[in-house]
Design brief:
Blueprint: H1 10-21, H2 27-46, H3 73-81, H4 88-103, H5 107-111, E1 118-119, E2 124-127, E3 136-139, H6 142-154, H7 177-192, H8 200-213, H9 218-225, H10 230-234, H11 241-251, H12 253-256
Antiparallel strand pairs: 1-2, 2-3
């Protein structure tokens, strides 16, 4: 049933919002649809197409950003160590996994790498046309650089269609993201006995978390990941506060300085002064 825009009431707006909440849609999708409709009716009111904006009092709840899913250092080590390097295909697989983790690359960034994009002697990767069409140069990692060099020298078979591509499939064509997920990562997870839902992007998350755990700054990790906004990178801090606290205690000069006598408390702070932490959504976020 069609309804004239001038006849839409606040009651209709509230009813539409309730109906939207009942749809099997992600919170982010629901919020986007509601924002779009609010913006449309706001435009109608500003241009005198309607007298009253029926969505003016409808609030949009911004969905909470989910914490990134990641593997522990032990899990990553097991994943990599159980990926053999003796056979040509296995050598390529290990080099791919090491590069994804070592450089925190998006899978799309890795498949687009050409031979000229890596400086193996210096251990650098030139990421061309990353998210937002931005380029960046990032470290490759010692092991990733050595394995990639060995792969190029001994195992990489060039074909006309993949003459410039760094990583090739068994037919000499540029490897695809789907092949990395199904033919490289899935078997590696099975060998490592890891039953979590792990995508190539999880290796990127893992790299970021491990860097922060070992003392890297948020700004440094932001540059590595190629995030446009530091707020995106700060999301990783939510999963490593205890590890960062341990690093701070071990490395910050003030932690090793003698404590002034006057700084010693005379009585304990009551426990009830501290607020309980709020629960955190740990579902997997969209790729950044």
């Amino acid at each position: 049933m069609r309804v004239a825009l001038t006849r839409v009431t606040p009651a209709d707006a509230r009813a539409w919002r309730r109906a939207l909440a009942g749809e099997p849609l992600a919170p982010k999708t629901q919020a986007e649809r509601l924002w779009n409709l609010k913006a449309f009716f706001r435009w109608l009111e500003r241009h005198s197409r309607i007298l009253v904006d029926p969505f003016a009092e409808i609030e949009v709840t911004e969905p909470r950003k989910a914490l990134p899913v990641y593997l522990s250092e032990a899990e990553v080590n097991t994943l990599l160590d159980r990926t053999p390097t003796a056979e040509p295909t296995a050598l390529r697989d290990r080099a791919v996994l090491e590069t994804l983790y070592g450089s925190a690359l998006r899978v799309g960034e890795l498949v687009r790498l050409d031979l000229g994009d890596v400086d193996l002697s210096r251990g650098l990767v030139n990421v061309r046309h990353g998210k937002g069409k931005k380029d960046r140069v990032v470290p490759m990692g010692r092991i990733a650089a050595r394995l990639t060099a060995r792969y190029i020298q001994t195992a990489r078979l060039a074909a006309p269609s993949g003459a410039h591509a760094l990583f090739l499939n068994d037919y000499g064509h540029r490897i695809t993201g789907d092949a990395i997920r199904k033919a490289i990562l899935a078997p590696a997870l099975e060998r490592a006995g890891i039953e979590k839902h792990v995508t190539p992007h999880v290796l990127r998350h893992s790299c970021a978390v491990h860097l922060l755990e070992n003392g890297a700054s948020v700004r440094e990790v932001q540059v590595l990941l190629g995030h446009a906004k530091i707020n995106t990178t700060q999301l990783y801090l939510a999963v490593v506060p205890l590890a960062l606290q341990a690093v701070h205690r071990a490395t910050h000069p003030a932690e090793h300085a003698p404590t002034p006598e006057s700084a010693n408390p005379t009585k304990c702070i009551p426990q009830h002064n501290f607020k309980k932490p709020r629960p955190v959504d740990v579902s997997e976020p969209e790729e950044e």
